[in-house]
Amino acid sequence: MKLAVTGGKGGVGKSTVAYNLAAELDAVVVDADLGMADLPEQSGPDLHDVLSGRATPLEAVSEDGPVALLPCGRSLAGARAADPTALVDTIAAVERHYDNVVIDSPAGLRSDVGLALLAADACLLVTRPSRAAIADALRGRELARAIDTPLARIVLNRVDADLLGSTDSRLDRLETALGAPVTLVPDSDVLHRAQWSGVSVRAVDSSCPASEAFADLARTIRNSVR
Description:
The protein is built from 11 helices and 7 strands. The protein has 226 residues and is of the alpha/beta class. The chain has a 7-stranded parallel β-sheet with strand order 3-2-4-1-5-6-7, with helices on both faces.
């Protein structure tokens, strides 16, 4: 399974969702943001090296951290040397060896976002409960449709706890507009602590609401994406 985690804009927590979903799925997470990598750095070869022919995809996968990761380089020279069109074959090679791959797509609607979607069997769209974020999510949805990548789920991320019980009508409208069911991920101190520590929410508190939301999301993805 190859799942792209995408969002129409930056700052919605897309990388956090990708990392935690990979932890729940026992998947490799690929940091495919060639110009602004956001997942933890690792020593050794990275995606820039793979896309420029200096390393193979499997050489660049690090299993040293809490989640298996194919990191992306952070240098401008590395980004310029990389051939983005090799991303599709790179993701396929990782899937053949590890079975499950979660792709952390770039923010926005640039061509490299389309390549991440093209490499995937399905996508997950992350947004926040604000008009601007949802408007950008709609544009992200249209890009996925244009590439013919199925939308498996919407994640409404970092929802305030006091809104969790009063969003039924909003969720109905969002599901109708975007054409997929919505999973809520509540905001919490545990989520922030995990992010700053470079670990999954489950590793900090496996029983917190955010951890349970990611576990439920993973079960849904397993059942819907083949």
